[in-house]
Amino acid sequence: MHIPDGYLSPSTCASLYAGAAPFWYVALRRVKRELDSRTIPLLSMFSAFCFVVMLFNLPLPGGTTGHAVGMGVASIVLGPWVSILAISIALLIQALLFGDGGITAFGANCFNMAVVGSLVAFAVYRIGAAGADVTSRRRAAAAGAAGYLGINAAAFCAAIEFGVQPLLFRTASGAPLYAPYPLSVSIPAMMIGHLTFAGVAELILSAGMVAYLQRADPALLRRTAPGAKCTIVPEASSDLPRRGASLRGLWLALGVLAIGSPLGILAVGGGWGEAKRVSLWRAPLADYAPAFIPNPFVGYFVSAMVGAGVVVALAWLVSRAAFGERRRRAGGQSASFMEATVRGLLDIVERSIFAEDMAGSMGFLQRLDPRVKLAGLATLIACAVAIRRVWMLGALFSIATAMAAFSKISLRQMARRVWLPVAGFTGSIALPAVFLVRGQILFRTPLPGMHATVEGATSAVFLILRAATAATAAYELVMTTPWNRLLRALRWFRAPVVLVVVIETAYRYISVLLQAAQNMFESRRARLVGRLEGPEQRRLAAATVGVLLDKSLQFSVEMHTAMQARGFRGEAMVLEETRLRANDWALLSAFLAAAVLVLWAGL
Amino acid sequence: MSNGAGAPPVFEARGVSYRYRGVAALDGLSMRVERGERVALIGANGSGKSTLIRVLAGLAFAESGQVSFLGEAVTQERLRDESFFFPFRRRVGVLFQNPDVQLFNTSVFDEVAFGPLQLGWPRDEIRAVVERTLDRMGIAHLRNRAPHRLSGGEKKRVALASVLVLDPEVLLLDEPTAALDPGTQSEVVRLLASWANGPRTVITATHDLDTLEEIADRCYVLERGRIAGEGSPMTVLHDVGLLTEAGLLRPQHHKHGRDVAQPHPHAHWGEV
Ligand SMILES: Nc1ncnc2c1ncn2[C@@H]1O[C@H](COP(=O)(O)OP(=O)(O)O)[C@@H](O)[C@H]1O
Ligand SMILES: [Mg+2]
User: Fold this and answer.
1) What is the CATH number of the domain that holds A431?
2) Which of A467, A602, A472 is closest to A7 using CA atoms?
3) Between these two residues, B33 and B7, which has the higher pLDDT value?
4) What is the dihedral of CA A406, A412, A413, A417, to 10 degrees?
5) What percent of chain A clears pLDDT 90, i.e. is strictly above it?
6) Does B117 contact A573 at a Cβ distance shorter than 8 Å?
7) How far from the centroid of its chain's Cα atoms is residue A389's Cα?
């Protein structure tokens, strides 16, 4: 459900930023007002938890994956407002520090998953659990329903955003400039995967986590249900959850999460493009059922979709070939779900370490002040999304590539981590458009109604070039800036101090959680000879998520205690960043002037 | 227990009990620490050392019994009062057992600056003090590194710097040398020793009998949340019965009839 850059028009992006902004504003005010000293650690912990949950790709039919978001459990524990912040921060960390999910589309992603997802989930929970005992089963069931409906509401918003693009944004000749498929395709395509797998994953996550908290730390559930009766006397909230509290119930619940999924074969390994994006798109397209379309032109779509199926299959083969090398290295024809997850985790840890080393070597981008770099690269991405001339897009892409070369970023690495995944993922979405968009016929295929068109090809080129340019720039930002510098740059852009501190703390939790997850996987794998069978893998994944929550809760409480010991009373404080030098200002102005030029020439 | 000229003890616990969800961790424990004393809390894993440190530091609050700091009761209510909170936090430093929970900032510099910032020191003074502390602890070169990516010994030093930057009068140390290699261990012990002369008070929780004489003038032996014994390191180390009962020695030491407890590698005592 992460919308990458290039799929939504600048005006859509802007209006969704504007749509999310008031919610952020109110949420921040509330956090500041209600700040008890546990808020910041909890908020950070849930951001980190949501981030990690989004990395757990579940195998879906058709060889793809989907993931939960965590909006259910976050809004239940934190309340809808703080949950909006928690999920937004998880998304921001993904976008900014891992280059995952769009920067221009960040507002849209937050609007869908953080705002709509949290509000819907919380409303459902409130209604479903009204009057229920804190530790009652009905509360856990309401939590499950909250998660399910929350994630589906978010997916539905994303589908609408995609679907309106071709209606509103086309070139003069009629080629779609952004996401090429209309509502009649985008809605079923998004919803099939979410109504089934991702929704069920979220359901089980929410219900399982609430059931777990009912036993381990009911005080947390009382935060949003102050009136609820509690048969167990809640302890002071500064207590650590009981060490080694029985997790069996949770494991069982989470085990179900994986039972629905077939033997794990991940279509695309981790990496820059992130398999999860692939899933939510490609799975529904591949399994597309024409009967779902309430549309008079069903006939057209049936044939169109048969064609799309063929093309998607082709694209899948291409990306399979592209990722074959990685997969073979991982030691199997088809990497198992667990191995893929471990590799994903390792990849992130390795990437952040690698990034710190890269950031140390002196190249063009490394020399820039992080604030200038952040502004400059974000502008580059915005330009790549805004302009409407293919040749300008090509030029921007070349500029982005040249910057990489001047910054000692190996282009081979870039190809492996950025371009191939973009080609595999966006390519598989863009290719069918070549045949589905009607217009001047480029060449005919033997399939009825399936002819490649100039407009179709144009829209595919737009989508791919935009996505590739944005991903390249984001990768450069991540690879040439140590993340603490990047965070400090945020402070300078007037990000509220609370926010920056929460991001810092969340990032810290993430590294702890990832390390814990990785260790757990590795140590278990070391004890098992040979490959794990399907059920074994699923149990392992479920257990890992459960233990992770336990660990992260415990860790957040301990860290909170350590913060208190050094005088923390719930208020965030930072040392001011130094001023920009004159030549930094000059560079910044140059960047912005160039952007204006590009927009003038390219619009 | 000595009591110099009527001055109130730095810390005094009287009949303190604490439970984690029904599991008793401290059980009517009493102890006191005078100004300038170096006191060790020794006991097996789970005997309540960490909990006692948390209770003394005002990070957890006794269910029954009393904790006082320089004669003033340490309670949740008192700590809400800024005129008690700020001086208390500034004067009492806590080093946690697991440096990972103590290092939550994005750079070593910010980590060390966290305490002074929270206590509202002037910004310029903070910069100067942090620089001085980094130098003194020999970690100036790590200034921009991410604390959680340092080695175990470096982490410990950063954690220590983040506590000592406030120049506390009382230090509560929870297993400061656990999980460090012997070289780093003695280095940490030396750093602490060089800091702790003068009127400073150091309370160290440990199950490491090897360094006991270096770090303490007096020890309390904890067993299941109670004080099982008290005395100078020499007396305690010779009290095989007490140490065995407290789970700090392998039972066979006793059976073999040795008079003097032999401190020995303690890896099997494990980690909490
Ligand atoms: N967070 C916690 N939740 C539940 N029980 C705990 C927790 N921390 C400690 N305990 C229990 O309290 C007792 C004392 O623990 P602790 O103070 O950590 O001992 P020590 O530091 O001496 O190893 C032990 O029985 C331990 O199991
Ligand atoms: Mg301990």
Assistant:
1) 1.10.1760.20
2) A467
3) B33
4) 120
5) 11
6) yes
7) 29
Please report whether residue A600 resides in a domain: no
Structural domain harbouring A392: 10-230+247-558
ipTM of the complex: 0.84
pLDDT digit string, tens, across residues B166-193: 989 999 999 988 777 888 888 888 877 7
Lowest mean pLDDT among A191-205, A263-277, A376-390, B103-117: A263-277
Cβ burial of B75 (10 Å; 0-12, 13-18, 19+) is middle
pLDDT per position as a tens digit, A127-139: 988 878 888 888 8
Band (B5; pLDDT cuts 50, 70, 90)? low
Among the listed residues A419, A514, A550, the one whose alpha carbon sits nearest the alpha carbon of residue A56: A514
In a domain, A236, yes or no: no
Report the gap between the CA of B54 and the closest CA in chain A (Å).
Answer: 9
Which of A320, A7, A66, A53 is CA-nearest to residue A192? Answer: A66
Strands (E), chain B: 11-20, 23-33, 38-42, 64-69, 72-73, 92-95, 170-174, 201-206, 218-223, 226-231
Chain B contact present for A230, CB below 8 A? no
**Is the pLDDT reported for residue B215 higher than 50?**
yes
Per-residue pLDDT for B102 more than 70?
yes
Looking at residue B231, its pLDDT comes to 92
Q: How far apart are CA A64 and CA A280, in angstroms?
A: 8
Distance of alpha carbon A326 from alpha carbon A347, whole angstroms: 12
The number of domains in chain A is: 1
A512 contact residues in B (CB cutoff 8 A): 100, 148
**Nearest ligand atom owner, CA of B270:** 1
Q: How far apart are the CA of B19 and the centre of ligand 1, in A? A: 9
Angle at alpha carbon of residue A309, lines to A304 and A312, rounded to 5°: 120
Give the start-to-end residue ranges of the domains of chain B. Answer: 11-98+170-264
- Bridge partners, residue B20, by sequence: B23
The CATH number of B11-98+170-264 is 3.40.50.300
Average pLDDT over residues B142-158: 85
One-letter amino acid for residue A425 of the chain: F
| Closest alpha carbon to B133 in B150, B109, B117, B152 | B109
